[in-house]
Amino acid sequence: MKQAIIYARVSTEEQAKKYSLSSQVEECRKYALEQGYTVIAEREEAYSGEVLDRPKLLEVFDICKNGGVDVLIVYDIDRLSRNTAHHAIIEMQLEKSGTEVEYVLGDYNNKSPEANLSRSIKQAISEYENMQRRERIVRGRSTKVKSGKVITGARSPYGYDSCNGVLTINSEEAIVVRKIYQWLSEGDSTKVIARKLHEQGIPSRADKVNAVVKQNGYSVWHPSSVRKVLKNRTYTGTWYFNKTKLIKVSGKTVQAKRPESEWLLVNVPQIIDEPTFNQAQKLLAENQIKSKRNTKREYLLRGMVFCTCGLKCECNYRKSLLSYRCPSKHVDTWTRPCEIKFYIRASVLEDLVWNAVVNLLLNPDYLKIEAEKQRQKAESGLTAIRSQLEAVESAISDTQRKIGILLDQLLDDDFPRSIVDERKKLLTHKLKQLESEKTQLQFSLSEGVITPAQEKTLILLTEKVKKGIDKITFEHKHKLLEMLRVRVDVCSKHRVRITGILPMFEGEIDTFEAL
Asked: Which residues lie closer than 8 Å to 428 by C-beta, 6 or more apart?
């Protein structure tokens, strides 16, 4: 008797509630009973069908890898994936383990040319429907915006209420928005403005909207929230849509800015006039320049030290003494509580960190050891990527073989030309997707670990740096620490942890003895 696993999927948790996963599983159980299979495991999840690395699907791979699983039962083709290339990859990975995929719906489970053609068409239709669905969503939103509606998501911009895509001014919040712009014009920084808002007990949007997770106490404003208000052009009466798009860069999906000619504009009620907004942008830029200009003293670890409360430690100068301290030590105790209230002389912490970096991170032996540790640590993840890459390469070879068979069938007149042409079109589309997937996996594999060649180059570089370490300038020291992404996390009043990029540098140093 064959052993089987059942896999069921919906795209989201909401769909899992609305369209029960249990119904898929039940139909799969009936199918297994009819076929005389023994079900040894069931896996179900709410995850996008466009993603290949799904938690429960990976569990299926692991179970099948151990052997003894003859069949993976899936309710329908689009439940396994909505991407034809991913279908091929999944099936190839399972095939290596001796596992075949069978579907409850559709006559795809035999290996006849007709079944293969039907399955390919169904996969292509599923992918096409998914692309159509996404296009309909984008088109629907664009149509809504073109009709003068705004899309705000869970919450509208502070200062406005939203109803059926229409923004109306919230009179109480609009007063606060105008105050913020006024305080900036009077010379207050975003930090001072945040403190004033708290002192006056003015609630933030997160205090009033349940959809927003509030981390701090009531009427606690963060300077970044104030800055968002000051940077939001919506207050001038202009709301924009379609400002960004998703693009692929080195195998990864990133957000990129669209040309302004592609933006869609909706006129909304005005809270701040254009001159006031432009003046605010000028003042913000000037404040940033002044902030850098007023930094007359050098702090090696500027922006790299973090207190236990999560706040970035400030660089402080008092009575001819440079120091790092938690911002909540003397001021802004309203932002969040801090038990440690970390404080240390800059020279003490900087010497400890710099010496640790020099003695460990720039040590060739240490580099070799840590690079090897990193390789071993990453091996499990890389094994999965290699397995996927092998499946992709097998799927590419199989697809190319099938295209070759099609040409033979055309020459032998085994099938009408129209059927062969349709099949070739589907296979060519799949081949293009597989080659794209292969490129992405190869990139992931190359960036996932330090190679011996990269390690050798890094060691040579650090040897050069170490030879001139005594002559290195403050600017070059700071630059080196930034390149190494050094971060200092406070563990207690007298202990800090230092971390950095690959090869992983992680260690604790005790500040007590140095005080």
From this structure: 403
Q: Quick one: 391 exposed, middle or buried, by C-beta within 10 A (0-12, 13-18, 19+)?
A: buried
> Which pLDDT band holds residue 503 (cuts at 50, 70, 90)?
very low
CATH class, domain 3-138, is alpha beta
What tens digit of pLDDT does each residue of 374-390 get? 666 666 666 777 777 78
Q: Above 90 in pLDDT, residue 37?
A: yes
Report residue 35 CA to chain centroid gap: 42
The residue among 204, 78, 62, 89 whose CA lies nearest residue 133 is 78
The amino acid occupying position 231 is: K
Q: Domain coordinates of the chain in residue numbers?
A: 3-138, 160-273, 381-449
Helix (H, G, I), strand (E, B) or coil at 39: strand
Query: Are the C-beta atoms of 124 and 426 separated by less than 8 Å?
Result: yes
CATH class of 160-273: alpha beta
* 219 neighbors 202 (Cβ within 8 angstroms): yes
Contact status, residue 507 vs residue 500, Cβ threshold 8 Å:
no
Q: Give me Rg for the CA atoms of the chain.
A: 30
- Examine domains 3-138 and 160-273 and report if their fold is the same: no
| Residue 11 pLDDT level (bands cut at 50, 70, 90) | confident
Q: Which of 273, 223, 226, 307 is nearest to 487 (CA)?
A: 307
